[in-house]
Amino acid sequence: MAKKGAVCGNTIMSLPWIGRLLIAIFLDCVLGVCRFVDGIFERRILKIIIGFFWIFYGLVIGWIVDIVFMAMGGRPPLL
Question: Is 33 part of any domain?
Answer without folding.
Answer: no
